[in-house]
Amino acid sequence: MKRILFFGLVFSLILSFGSCKKKSKDDRWTDTLNSGIIKIACDEDFKNLMNAEIDAFQAFTDYSAIINPIYTNEKEVIRLLLEDSVRFALTTRGLNAAEQKEFTDKQMVVRKFIVAFDGIAVIANKANPDSLLSLPTLKKILKGEIRTWKQINPKSSLDTIRVLFDNNKSGILRYVADSLTAKSESLSPNLYALGSGTDLIQKVSEMPNAIGFVGFNLVSDDSFWKKQETLRLMRIGREENASLQNTYLPYAGDIKDENYPLWRTIYILLSDPKSGLSSGFSIFFAHDVGQTVILKSGLLPAAGDPQNRLVKITDTYPDEK
What we know:
Number of strands: 12
Number of domains: 2
Largest sheet: 10 strands, mixed
Helix content: 25-40%
Distance between the termini: 11 Å
CATH topology of the largest domain: D-Maltodextrin-Binding Protein, domain 2
Shape: elongated
CATH superfamily of the largest domain: Periplasmic binding protein-like II
Structural class: alpha/beta
CATH class of the largest domain: Alpha Beta
Strand content: 15-25%
């Protein structure tokens, strides 16, 4: 992997831009670093995480700061930032060239900071006896080279593999298209985009032959699994022949050790020219309490752990071995 920086650099950068911006007299935003009311945009995959971060931050400011989140898909998150409807966005990618040009044309500056790493969970119905998948097999499923469960396990009583995503504008679908398959390759006709992560979870619970790609934050809560009688997490490994010994679940420890192969970086995109509440929330998110909330939400903090031990972090996906 490409190793680029330590968490301390992220925090120092946030502090540096926060201290040097001046308020504009024409700016309609009246919030400060720790007070006011703002809206933010967040990829809906991280709804549980964001709710926990907001609760912690608002308590930290004695409720002088009120943050109203907009949970939506990845494309809409960027659009809201571009329109200056929000100045804080949590997502899993930076700006592409066209988006960067739009911001530049509007004389808007967007800063990108790494705050966490998220595992992409593959969930299946418990009626499916196959709970291990290799990354090569998963790629063949996505490309349509493997279309039935009998091709994976001749003893399986299930037929066509249905692959479900939360929606057609999601960051997870983009991740799969960009990272697990070549852009020039055609995808399986058995891939389906639903309305939301909640819809996906419900559909997989009803379809024994389906698997679904979902952000681990949506299914990381122990209380979620205590109520589940029909779902399981699939174990994923890099080696061709999947076994219990070489496959892993999307836990923070196995992402940190590079064992689990499906993960992505979580970024804050910040467009705040006046060092307002969006900047204050960013600093909180990246510092000790915010990073502890990330860890308790089942994700890997950029700091590695709340004790601030130095660990490697990355701005790209893991190299395949």
